[in-house]
Design brief:
single chain, mainly beta, eight-stranded antiparallel beta sheet, binds calcium ion, 2 domains, Jelly Rolls, 37% strand
Length: 469
């Protein structure tokens, strides 16, 4: 972004900007003198937003790449009452260009924040302010976080955290995005979140909106991580033009921040096509496990790929009552890396005529027959089920010998008709006329070439109950 132009426009557009002074802005230029201190996997001079896609940037614009796992820049707070200290009555704007490589279910990845570093000499939850991306429904949503002083006797131990998150966001691996957040402390209705020049609605949670002042001290400013470098708080991707302003930048300025040739990136669900299952063993069900699906509540978006196979086995039925225990390369037991995809696939011989398929799954699932989805279950996006809902009565199985449906699983019935092959039609006619004739007359067996159907079930879940890990 051409900062000089943006600043000039802002100055002309609104006297309010006179109060919005830039405290710090890091552009990660190749020659930029900076007081930022790098820690961990930090790589400078990677390409930032550049023309022709982003015409407001220089052709050689550079950014910084962070590997996660605590990779960060740190900046010491100059002291008491510094430009980075915000309290009630102070307005704040946080903004950054972000290129997110990876976002896992439930993660909150720090772009920039003050406090909560885990440094000695400060209280643990001393978050003065933070701009983060938070995973919701597989999207990276713009999120703001600060902490107030805990109140003794509060009904819950986390009520001093105040988080606001936009209801929508962007997909990981979808290029550069501009995110921003404005807020005046003490006025919870003042919060605004921005993505690619658009103001998005959002909601407070945890401790909810508050008029209480945030915790403020002399703890450091961190870019890209928090909480002592916690991996689940560490940004994995590239950052550029990270800025902190005192005062709320006007809407006109934030709308102009994002200019991309072709408009904002739109992510769509990929076309629903049967994954390549490869050769399947004759007469067996091949079961495969794939860790780290992009999201637990949807299938792939355009441009995303199926995760590589983590493990597999072959079995005799389309049945998986629980996940096998996961071991690492050293044979040490460890957790599955959710969301985990499970596939069961086989070439099945089916008699002609209408067939019923029963599918049971606890989360996002779909049943394919000959390349067509015939049944699907939705992902788990609400609570319950969390183990605390009322226990439903145990239902009777649909057929003798079939297991009872497990609590929490959803059941779907799909019907599919398989026409007989031409050579088998006459034979089938004779056989079907003999209603109640079991077993099937042997005379019909040779010419009745039953059709082979390729049946597979895909199942993806955010996390599995503890006993299944
Ligand atoms: Ca830059
Ligand atoms: Ca301070």
């Amino acid at each position: 972004m051409n900062l000089a132009l943006a600043s000039l426009m802002a100055f002309l557009l609104s006297g309010a900007l006179a109060a919005a002074a830039t405290v710090a802005r890091w552009d990660f230029g190749a020659e930029e003198p900076t007081r930022l201190t790098p820690h961990g996997g930090v790589h400078r001079d990677v390409p930032g937003p550049r023309p022709p896609e982003f015409p407001d940037f220089d052709a050689g614009n550079t950014a910084v790449q962070l590997d996660g796992n605590g990779a960060r820049f740190t900046f010491e707070d100059p002291g008491t009452g510094s430009g980075f200290d915000f309290t009630n009555g102070d307005a704040l704007t946080l903004e950054a260009w972000v290129k997110l490589d990876d976002l896992r279910a439930g993660e909150n990845l720090y772009v920039i924040g003050k406090g909560r570093t885990g440094a000695a000499g400060f209280t643990a939850d001393n978050q003065n302010w933070a701009l983060r991306v938070r995973e919701q429904r597989g999207r990276a949503c713009v999120s703001f976080l600060f902490a107030t002083v805990p109140v003794s006797g509060a009904p819950k131990s986390d009520q001093h955290w105040h988080r606001w998150t936009t209801t929508d966001g962007f997909a990981a691996k979808s290029g550069w995005h501009h995110i921003a957040l404005t807020y005046r402390f003490g006025e919870p209705a003042s919060v605004r979140g921005w993505l690619d020049g658009q103001s998005l609605p959002g909601a407070w949670d945890i401790g909810g909106p508050t008029t209480a002042p945030p915790v403020v001290d002399n703890d450091a400013v961190w870019i890209g991580s928090s909480s002592g470098g916690a991996p689940a708080n560490s940004f994995r991707g590239a950052l550029d033009a990270v800025a902190v302003h005192r005062g709320a930048l006007p809407d006109e300025v934030l709308k102009q921040r994002f200019r991309r040739t072709g408009g904002p990136v739109v992510t769509r669900l990929a076309k629903e096509t049967l994954p390549d299952l490869g050769a399947l063993p004759t007469g067996r069900v091949r079961v495969t496990f794939h860790e780290k699906m992009p999201a637990h509540d949807r299938w792939l978006n355009d441009g995303e790929a199926w995760p590589a196979e983590t493990a597999h086995w072959t079995g005799e039925s389309f049945l998986l009552p629980r996940l096998p225990v996961r071991y690492d390369d050293w044979g040490i037991r460890e957790a599955w890396k959710a969301p985990t995809l499970v596939r069961l696939a086989a070439d099945v011989t089916l008699p002609p005529g209408k067939q019923r398929f029963v599918m049971r799954a606890r989360a996002l699932g779909r049943l394919w027959v000959n390349g067509v989805v015939v049944a699907r279950t939705a992902g788990l996006t609400k609570s319950p089920p969390d183990g605390e809902e009322p226990v439903a009565p145990v239902t009777e199985p649909p057929l003798p010998g079939v297991r009872r449906r497990r609590i929490g699983s959803r059941k779907l019935l799909a019907k599919r008709r398989f026409p007989p092959t031409a050579s088998a039609a006459s034979c089938w006619k004779r056989w079907s006329a003999a209603l109640g004739c079991e077993p099937r007359p042997a005379s019909c067996a040779p010419p009745c070439r039953r059709r082979m159907a390729r049946v597979s079930m895909s199942y993806s879940q955010r996390e599995f109950p503890r006993h299944c890990r």
